[in-house]
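About this split. The held-out portion is used to measure sequence recovery: a designer receives only the structure tokens and must propose an amino acid at every position. Recovery is the fraction of positions where the proposal matches the reference. Here is one held-out target exactly as it appears in the evaluation file.
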């Protein structure tokens, strides 16, 4: 996937999310529930903008994100299980 972390819109969204999380912390809110709601809202926004069909549709992108997350988790487990200095 393309690295969007340097895009101005990514940084703006990241700043808004960080502000919301900080506000939840001050208010004693549930960050886990907020994260779930944020994921749902982000998915709905993505579907609205990109649609649900084709390579860039929401289901295809969510599938790629889930696969990438599974790969990261597997690599993390392997790194934890592998003695240092051996790969």
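Reference sequence for scoring:
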């Amino acid at each position: 996937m393309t690295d969007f972390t340097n895009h101005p819109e990514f940084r703006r969204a990241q700043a808004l999310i960080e502000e919301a999380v900080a506000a939840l912390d001050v208010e004693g809110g549930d960050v886990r529930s907020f994260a779930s709601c944020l994921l749902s809202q982000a998915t709905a926004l993505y579907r609205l903008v990109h649609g649900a069909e084709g390579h860039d549709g929401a289901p295809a992108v969510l599938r790629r994100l889930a696969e990438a997350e599974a790969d990261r988790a597997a690599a993390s487990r392997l790194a934890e299980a592998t003695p240092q200095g051996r790969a």
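Annotator remark: The mean pLDDT is 89.
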